[in-house]
Amino acid sequence: MFVSHLAAAAEVGAYTFTTARFWATAAALLALAATVLAALARARAARGRGEGGRRAAVVALVAGLGAAAGGAVTLLVADGGPGTGNGVVAGGAAVVLGLAAVVLGGRVLARSRRADAPALAGNGR
Question: Which residues cross the membrane (predicted)?
Fold first, then answer.
């Protein structure tokens, strides 16, 4: 049984673009975009202009969470390791980059709430 499993896994070429690889790659690209967006939101928040990157941070947070979930599902349903056509490498990248986007986006939101708190408290008097 183990030998037949290895023979089935060897049938997929290294450059064959399977459905599992497609979904894992899509999740990884979404996670990469979310991480870049979160980094840009953090840079905007550091400048202190406008809305402070709050909207971009929320988008990065949601996209990062979705990408991390997609990568986790890919890893959970994978039958084999890297090179088997299951999208394991891209799924792992999606989880790591998605969580990085969630952390960066959350930090931007926390910073923007702290910056707005004294201003909101002063307006009510």
Answer: 20-43, 55-77, 89-110
